Amino acid sequence: MAGFRDRGVVFSMRVMGGTLGGVWERDRRDTLFLLGAIALAIGPQLFNLPLWCAAGFAVLFLWRTGLVFSGRPLPGKVLSIAAAAACTAGVLAQYGTLFGREAGVALLVLFLGLKLMEMRARRDHFVVIFLSFFVLVTGFFESQSMFAAALGMIAVVGLLAALLTMQFGQREVSLRQRLTTVGVMLLQALPLAAALFVLFPRINGPLWGLPSDAHSGSTGMSDTMSPGQISDLANNDEVAFRVQFEGRAPAQSQMYWRGPTLGHFDGKVWRAVRADIGPRPAAQATLPEGGKALHYRTTLEPHSGRWLFALDVPASVPSAPDLAVSVSPDFDMLAADPVNARTRFDATARLDASIGLNETPLSLQNWLQLPPGHHRRTLELASRWRNEEADNGALVQRTLSMFHDADFRYTLNPPLLEDNPVDRFLFETRAGFCEHYASAFVVLMRALDIPARVVTGYQGGEANPADDYWIVRQSDAHAWAEVWLDGKGWVRIDPTSAVAPERIEKGSSALSRQRGQAKDGLPGLGDLDFYRQLRFSIDAVSHGWNQWVLSYDSGRQKSLLGSIGLDSTQPQEIAAALGVVLALAIAGVALSTLRPQVKRDEVERAYDLFCARVAAIGAPRLKAETASRYLERIDPLLEPDDADLAREIVETYSQLRYDPDTSSPKRVRDLQRLVRAFKP
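The structure assignment produced for this chain is given below.
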């Protein structure tokens, strides 16, 4: 440490606040403050970059920080040019291009690190700050959550404080004063930002949408199903969608959220039936008279598919502004385009509805297909059962009884099934997740010459008591079956309920907690009430953020403007309203900032409060009466303790007012403390 002191370096956290005298030069303090603000802005983005890219920026950042502490000169232009060429070549090798979202962000971050090595003049500091603002914006390509917005706001405060630091001349102000000034500036800008957010025309879709690389990391339900695919989602707590019902929600065991319907099987993988194979009657729902409809609103997270996951059975086509929805012959609700942004839609369901009564013998052949050369043992079992029973409904119940009475197990870690997975599951392993049971059930039904198909989606959900809505997570992914029966149409059969009825009645999250606790005998973190309440509260706040900020699209803007009498299709009206609001906001800010403000002396303010408290007992101070004369006059009127305190107040006031050597912030605080204690 002595060697560092000889070089004029003293390590202290106070360096970020400045005003350390001659130990630190002014430009060192400003540079360190700027580097701290850059770390706040760039830090979260590093986790979204390739490891070598993040490490490269970290090396440049630490190198520049070391140069600040050591006082050594910056590297020359030759080294900077070579480093820039190496960064460009690395990005080109990583992405195969220098254009696009991911390559552009990586290149921008690396060039920002290189620019740190060229900060010599104040102009360079400004360039670095503006580049940091731009990199901060690119972080919202990856996440627009409330947490990301909070981190971004903290970084904005830091960058603005660094920008403000550059504006001071020789006079240096404290960190507290800089942050206070930035806070006032942001509060003044808040009305303008709110006006622009509400009134500025909304753009449908992302501003920098790049279809080639957008949403490459989306996970969730797929348009195929194979053993183990849905069980991979069992431990994924990411939210798939949120649902808010009008009135009372149905029982959890009735919450089947319909997704892709699968009918073609190659022995391992289930896929949708091709549209050009056989006749496909239009989707038709038969609604019994007197039934009750369920109305609900869904906020669907982006999943890169077209399915809307409607509560089975949908009684009408889901509706939402700027959302074109169609119904497939298999009763799947499909958006016109992949859902690559958070989507809200209103829907209606009838749990007592029947579908598929308009199927014909020819169209039902699509749901009897089995791959040749597979499932020999399953076919033999079906042949015996068919000889013993002719009623299809009875055969369905016999299959469910087999799952319930035999030693079948419901597990998230089933054995690996390679060849003939259905035969091995039914006659050997007898352990699987919902997709194993749904697949085996449908194959056995088709072997019995009963039309059947697999339906994938989500089952159940978790009620959030903090905001009266249901959360459906990826862990609620589920597969079930539908069989076609005479006079009933397509009937939902969930073979999982025969093996693990608690999965359907309580939901996947409750089942996971129950089995986890039974395994080790101890409650996990998710079982603690305070943790669950905290989790629900955070999700409720996040849901509100999604509803009122991220989901404020052109449709909601149109509805809001229409409620106040503005026509969103008339640009002149919107422009006029925006101009009026901005003018009023600017005028309000100007009136609050441009009016003259005289800062009162803290010493005089404290003494005036003392005089006011004495006046309250009938002894106001006379005009031009000195403090000592006033004390002589009021001393007989006060109790002994109050008189002693009054003498101490007047003595401290006189020293602060007439003896500069005794004046200090501590003495001022002492006077204020004495006056607060004085209550005659």
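Interim note for the steering committee: The chain has a mean pLDDT of 80. The first strand starts at residue 224 and ends at 225.
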